[in-house]
# Entry
Amino acid sequence: MKLGAFKNRLSGHCGFLFTELPLAERFAAAARAGFRAVEHPNLFATPAPEVAGWLERAGVPLVQTGFPAGDAAKGEKGFAALPDKIEYYRSTIEPTLDYVARLGCRMVHPMAGVRPAGVEQSRLWDTYLDNLAFAADAAKARGMTVIVEPIGPGSIADYVIDDPLVAVQAIEAIGRDNVKLLFDAYHCVCLGHDPAALIRAHAPLIAHVQIADDPGRHEPGTGTIAFDPIFEALEEVGYHGLVGCEYHPESGTDAGLGWMRSAT
# Structure
């Protein structure tokens, strides 16, 4: 695999990687493995000063995280598009930005949520746009970026923002310059898109990139996705961000890092 300049710009997603370790040890493990940054969607159970200490001792930045997304065991996957959760969603914005600021993180993702039965798509869409703009305006005051990640039905059934083109439509609709796309090559391929083509078409909107192979959402090299064209497209469009490794290790994190070590 030809990572080129991106070999030194990989971020370890510590919600997926190093899960054999306590959360307190994962950032340091990622740094030892060669990741230059880390990411995690939900750190709120731990006080911010404690998480900041983990990051400082590991010597890596936290590149992106999320707003509270609810109880996954109950099927909750965020609230930004849910009309009956507007008050709760908005109540989380400032506390989350306070928390994230203490960690030095600059990108935050408000998950849209799962479509409730009986609610019209147009109402979900309007709610999402209003709530996305609300978060973006609060984040802009702090110099932060709000990121939108489309998640396909193979990962979350009935997720409201379920396609990269839908995410792009939302970003363009609200017209905030600090709302950007989290481009996940795995979701893109699973939805039948050509990731390199989408990168070239929407490069100015991309703030962060994530990768995993398909099938299985394991480490690159275990499936059928051709990653060289993806990295070539990122290089071509001048993408200067990090590439998040958000995959389920097939046989343990360390055992599956050969793809990084052998990449050129």
Residues 121-140 form the longest helix (20 residues). The two ends are 6 Å apart (CA to CA).
